[in-house]
Write a structure and sequence with these properties.
126 residues; mainly beta; ten-stranded parallel beta sheet; six-stranded parallel beta sheet; globular
Length: 126
């Protein structure tokens, strides 16, 4: 007897270009932001920040591709990819870092290579 095949589908959330959200966002799936966010983003998946986006707050996720403007801390468990149009003011903490020419950031950069020292993507509530 064979086992049933169960496809795990994670949601892809999108914040459109002309949308502004004020408040914190938590997501178990991937998220793409092309609009504006004032607040923190906690995502267990991948975060894509589009080239026209503006974010003021902390981003915590598993992996991220940044093309827009961010004013705040970024904590990425795996790969943080800064594209040429990225502009970041704030500290970066990640497992791996990829930076294209033209990307700019002002702040401290900390690469964590030891898996047990990587901060939790979404801290457990106490």
């Amino acid at each position: 007897m064979s086992k049933p095949v169960i496809n795990e589908v994670k949601a892809l959330n999108t914040i459109a270009q002309d949308t502004k959200i004020t408040g914190n966002i938590e997501s178990d799936g991937d998220i793409r932001i092309d609009g504006a966010l004032v607040g923190d983003l906690d995502c267990k998946g991948r975060v894509v920040v589009g080239p026209d986006s503006k974010i003021k707050g902390t981003i915590r996720c598993t992996s991220a591709e940044i093309m827009g403007y961010i004013n705040g801390e970024i904590v990425v468990k795996d790969l943080l990819s800064l594209k040429g149009s990225a502009s970041i003011t704030g500290n970066l903490t990640m497992g791996k870092l990829s930076v294209e020419p033209g990307a700019r950031f002002v702040g401290h950069c900390k690469m964590i290579s030891d898996e047990k020292n990587v901060p939790e993507v979404i801290p457990e509530e106490k």
